[in-house]
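An example makes the point: we let one protein speak, the chain in one-letter code, the fold tokenised, and here it is:
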Amino acid sequence: MQWPGEPPTIGVQWEQSGVPMDGAIISALAALGGSAVGAVASFASTWLSQTAQDRAAQIAKSVNRREQIYGDFIEEVSRVYAEALTHPIEEPLKLVRLYALVGKLRLFAPPHIVSQAEAVMHRIMETKRPPHDDLKDFQPTDDIVLHFSELCREDLHRYARRTAMDLLRRRHEPAQRGVAASPR
């Protein structure tokens, strides 16, 4: 016989509020609850890690795309400018690739990059062939892509820095929300 207030013995059912409880059932429920919490924590950790990796991959792809189009534009400008210095540009087909690259820049580059690219194109159109054909004495007064390439470099650094800060902020936001939401 068990006296009121006395703890149950092992293997003996304990009745509380008319529901029979066995120590083995309580242990099994605790184990199931712990497993569920562990599974949810593992899922959340994996999901957050994968999200951060996906975002980093998107940023790398975007930076790579910008680097590629900026480099292609500088290369094409250099080719067309050299040709403009030696031969008058009479065929518009020679400028098609350059116009296409400016169009691509308009898709994702900041406005100051696009306006500088357009200024470079106008400069090429205004270029007159020097009076001598061999160009051995010709010295250009300035590099027509210098300002454009400097702006591109600044844009790439600014973009990479901004996206890195966004990643760091997103990484710390869930922790900050959890701290702010906890009762004191």
About this structure: Confidence is low (pLDDT under 50) at residues 179-184. Strands lie at 14-16, 19-21. The CA atoms of residues 75 and 167 lie 33 Å apart.
